[in-house]
Amino acid sequence: MGNFDGLHRGHALLIGRARGLAQEHNRPTAVLTFEPHPRSVFVPDTEPFRLTPFRVKERELARLGVDLLFVQHFDLGFAAKSAEDFLAEIIVAAIGASHVVVGWDCTFGKSRRGTPDFLRAAGSAHGFGVTVIEPVRDADQTVYSSTSIRELLKTGKPLRN
Question: The domain 9-135: what is its CATH number?
Answer without folding.
Answer: 3.40.50.620
